[in-house]
Structure formats: structure tokens, C-alpha cells
């Protein structure tokens, strides 16, 4: 996991991952007393109820015991006590691992409950809008879901318990000042490594999104990448602002589990939307075909007409959902029709309107990669060096200079 920290804010307390097994907690307290008797720990050491602190205690005890044995100065009685201590440390380490594993199982249950809030969502838009609410169900005070648009980190929706206006302000700050995903931004590491992020001093770290940090006033947050079809398409961020708690490693792991489940659900819903668009397009094409067939079959025959005459129909591909209709009086030049496929002609028309690859993908309900591939094929077939040259060629062939 990626972790970034500056001097911790004094008014924010360290988060604790408590040991829930009372017997293990009691045994760790007994170990602490024995370590004090053996001179490995100071007498004023506090108790250990937190999993991370307990692990530090065990590591410190193991180091102290092995160093004492290696020194060779211990009496026979102390030597036996140190050997017993090492055996006990091994057993306590195993129990502590079991405690961590139980925590992960509980976290999976919380993720399952959070994803249950998205049950019934049928569109990508609904998914993005409700995502922060579901993430907050994990126990965070504030959450927001963002997307990657034109290689920029752009917030989409935010949840702030009891303050919708503040949530809107956080989203607005990110949308009005989008940040490029370059080496100066921490979120870029999530795209590159596909690991969660943990930040302990957001206000003083120059690599965070400064505009969002200023409006949100966040001190410590975690974030995780949303991966769809092996590509990072966005992020989920969360913090404990109202509780004034610094995030811990387990918080980042919990959010990461949620982001993975969210990405899988997102992919399924997006595929469903594409199928619905394809079904509507097919039904519309079939209806048009039926109407044309009926028109031909129902015509009265006469000497002035022949069966072979076809009714006039617009040139070019049928419009599909999300794309503009073919402009009137703009037939496809023969040279273009011979060079390009119907889909490539649609992409070229959208390029002529100034659409980006993302815009083309959204209008034609295809992936960003597919849109990019179509553009590449168009440039090669038209022998154009760039998009502007291809569009210019398009207008020239249509007789528009």
C-alpha cells in the first residue's frame, strides 16, 4: 500500500484497530509485565489494546530476547526464561495473525453490506451518484467518487453526512480545477501501481489536489483505484473528518475491497446499458426494414411503375442512440464510402464536430480504446498526419472548403 505522511496534526488522534479477543488482550498484558521483569521494556509502558501496537510489542520482545541470548551473559534461569519467552512469542504471533484475519473477514461483511445499497441500480449514472453513500456505509465520515477524464482526476459525486452543500462544493472544486495525472499528483501512483493510497497530512503535502484539500479541509484520507477491464477509470476517497481520526492501514485495505467490488458492479451495469442500446438500435432497424418491405409489397402495379424501383432512402449508416442524425444535404462522398467502414464514417463525422475520443466513445456507446482505434484507422486510410488534417479532408471531399 502507498503511504504518504508529514508531521501528524496534534488535534487529530491516531486511529486504533482494537483487539476484540479478551483472552488475547490479557495474555499480551501479561507478556508486557514479563518483558518489564526481564528488562526488555520500561516499567512505565502502557497497555496494548491495538493490533498494530501489539505487533510492535511482539517484534520488540523478539528482538530483545534474541539479543539477550546472543550476548551469552544470561544466567541459567534467565536463559530458560528467554527461551520460554521466544516460544510464547511465536504462539502469540499466530494468535495475532488470527485476530487480523478475523478483522479482514468482518471487513468483507461490511463491504458486502455497502454494496447491497447499490442493489437495483441499473445505469452508470446511478452507480456514480450512489457510490459515495455506499462507501460511507463502511464507517467513513465523508466519501467521494471520481472519474478519469482526458487524463485528469475529476470528482463526480460526494457524500458528507448532513451537509449536501459542502459535498457539492467539494465536487465543484475538483471539477473547476481538474488536475492532470502526472508525477506531481499522488493519485497518479494509484493508476500506475493499482494500489490504495494513505495520506496522513493532506493540508501540507504538495502532491495532493490542493483545491479539493482546501475546500474539504481534510487532514488524513485514504483512496483506492476503481479498475474496469484492467484499466483504472476512477477513484474512491474517504476520511474521518468529523471523528478527527487519522486513517490507518486497515482503512485503506477496506476501501480497496470496496473499490474492487464497485468496479466489478460498474462493469456489469455498463455492459447492460450497452446491450440495451444495441437492442433498441436493432429493433429500430428491423422496424424500418419491415416498413420498407411493406411499402414495396403493397404498391399497386401499373405500366408507369416497376417492381424493381426502390424507394428513396437516406445515405450513410442508420443513426444509433446517442449520436446525431446525418445532416440533411450531406451525402457521403464515394471516395470516403470506398475507403471507410460505416462505423469509421460515424467516427469521422463526430471528429468533424470536435468530439474527443471520450466524446466519441460516449456518443457511440463504445469503449475509449475502441474509439481510439477507429481514429487511428481513419488517419491511416486518409493518409492524414493528425485529426485536423483528417477533418479537413472530410470537408474537402464533401465540397465544403
List the helices and strands and how they pair.
Elements: E1 2-4, E2 13-14, H1 22-37, H2 51-71, H3 76-116, H4 124-136, E3 142-149, E4 152-160, H5 164-176, E5 179-180, H6 187-193, E6 197-199, H7 210-216, E7 221-228, E8 231-239, E9 245-246, H8 249-298, H9 334-339, H10 342-352, H11 357-364, H12 368-381, H13 387-397
Parallel strand pairs: 1-6, 2-9
Antiparallel strand pairs: 3-4, 3-8, 4-5, 6-7, 7-8
Helix pairs in contact: 2-3, 3-4, 3-8, 4-8, 5-7, 10-12, 10-13, 11-12
InterPro entries: GAF, GAF-like_dom_sf, Sig_transdc_resp-reg_C-effctor, Tscrpt_reg_LuxR_C, WH-like_DNA-bd_sf
Pfam families: GAF, GerE
Keywords: DNA-binding, Transcription, Transcription regulation
Tell me briefly what this model is.
With 401 residues, the chain is an alpha+beta fold.
End-to-end separation: 56 Å
* Beta-strand content: 5-15%
How does the overall form come out from the CA principal axes? Answer: elongated
Mean residue pLDDT? 82
Low-confidence runs of at least 5 consecutive residues: 2-10, 306-326
Number of strands: 9
Number of domains: 3
What is the helical fraction, as a range of percent?
A: 40-55%
- Rg over CA atoms: 31 Å
Major sheet size, sense and barrel closure: 7 strands, mixed
What is the helix/strand order? EEHHHHEEHEHEHEEEHHHHHH
How are strands sequenced across the largest beta sheet?
A: 1-6-7-8-3-4-5
Architecture of the largest domain, CATH level 2? 2-Layer Sandwich
Within CATH, the superfamily of the largest domain carries the name: GAF domain
Text of the CATH class of the largest domain: Alpha Beta
In CATH terms, what is the fold-level topology of the largest domain? Beta-Lactamase
SS content category = alpha+beta
Number of helical segments? 13
InterPro entries: GAF, GAF-like_dom_sf, Sig_transdc_resp-reg_C-effctor, Tscrpt_reg_LuxR_C, WH-like_DNA-bd_sf
Keywords: DNA-binding, Transcription, Transcription regulation
Pfam families: GAF, GerE
Organism: Patulibacter brassicae
Amino acid at each position: 500500500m502507498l503511504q504518504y505522511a508529514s508531521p501528524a496534526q496534534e488535534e487529530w488522534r491516531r486511529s486504533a484497530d482494537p483487539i476484540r479477543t479478551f483472552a488475547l488482550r490479557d495474555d499480551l498484558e501479561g507478556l508486557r509485565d514479563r518483558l518489564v521483569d526481564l528488562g526488555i521494556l520500561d516499567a512505565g509502558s502502557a497497555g496494548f489494546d491495538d493490533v498494530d501496537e501489539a505487533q510492535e510489542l511482539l517484534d520488540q520482545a523478539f528482538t530483545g530476547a534474541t539479543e539477550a541470548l546472543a550476548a551469552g551473559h544470561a544466567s541459567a534461569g534467565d536463559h530458560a526464561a528467554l527461551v520460554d519467552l521466544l516460544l510464547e512469542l511465536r504462539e502469540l504471533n499466530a494468535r495475532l495473525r488470527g485476530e487480523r484475519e478475523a478483522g479482514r473477514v468482518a471487513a468483507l461483511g461490511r463491504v458486502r453490506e455497502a454494496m447491497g445499497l447499490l442493489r437495483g441500480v441499473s445505469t452508470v449514472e446511478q452507480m456514480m451518484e450512489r457510490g459515495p453513500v455506499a462507501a460511507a456505509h463502511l464507517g467513513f465520515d465523508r466519501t467521494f467518487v471520481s472519474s478519469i477524464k482526458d487524463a485528469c482526476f475529476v470528482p463526480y459525486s460526494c457524500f458528507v453526512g448532513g451537509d449536501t452543500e459542502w459535498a457539492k462544493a467539494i465536487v465543484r472544486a475538483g471539477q473547476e480545477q481538474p488536475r492532470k495525472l502526472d508525477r506531481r499528483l499522488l493519485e497518479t501512483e494509484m493508476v500506475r501501481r493499482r494500489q490504495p493510497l494513505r495520506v496522513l497530512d493532506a493540508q501540507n503535502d504538495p502532491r495532493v489536489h490542493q483545491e479539493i484539500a482546501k475546500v474539504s479541509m481534510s487532514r488524513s484520507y485514504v483512496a483506492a483505484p476503481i479498475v474496469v477491464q484492467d484499466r483504472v477509470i476512477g477513484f474512491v476517497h474517504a476520511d474521518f473528518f468529523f471523528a478527527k481520526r487519522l486513517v490507518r492501514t486497515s482503512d485503506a485495505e477496506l476501501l480497496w475491497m470496496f473499490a474492487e467490488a464497485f468496479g466489478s458492479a460498474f462493469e456489469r451495469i455498463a455492459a447492460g446499458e450497452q446491450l440495451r442500446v444495441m437492442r433498441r438500435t436493432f429493433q429500430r432497424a428491423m422496424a424500418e426494414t419491415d416498413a420498407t418491405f411493406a411499402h414495396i409489397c403493397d404498391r399497386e402495379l401499373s405500366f408507369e411503375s416497376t417492381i424493381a424501383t426502390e424507394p428513396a432512402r437516406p445515405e450513410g449508416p442508420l443513426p444509433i442512440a446517442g449520436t446525431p442524425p446525418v445532416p440533411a444535404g450531406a451525402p457521403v462522398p464515394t471516395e470516403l464510402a470506398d475507403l471507410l467502414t460505416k462505423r469509421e464514417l460515424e467516427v469521422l463525422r463526430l471528429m468533424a464536430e470536435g468530439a474527443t475520443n471520450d466524446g466519441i466513445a460516449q456518443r457511440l456507446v463504445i469503449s475509449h480504446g475502441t474509439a481510439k482505434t477507429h481514429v487511428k484507422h481513419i488517419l491511416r486510410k486518409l493518409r492524414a498526419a493528425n485529426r485536423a488534417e483528417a477533418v479537413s479532408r472530410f470537408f474537402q471531399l464533401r465540397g465544403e472548403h
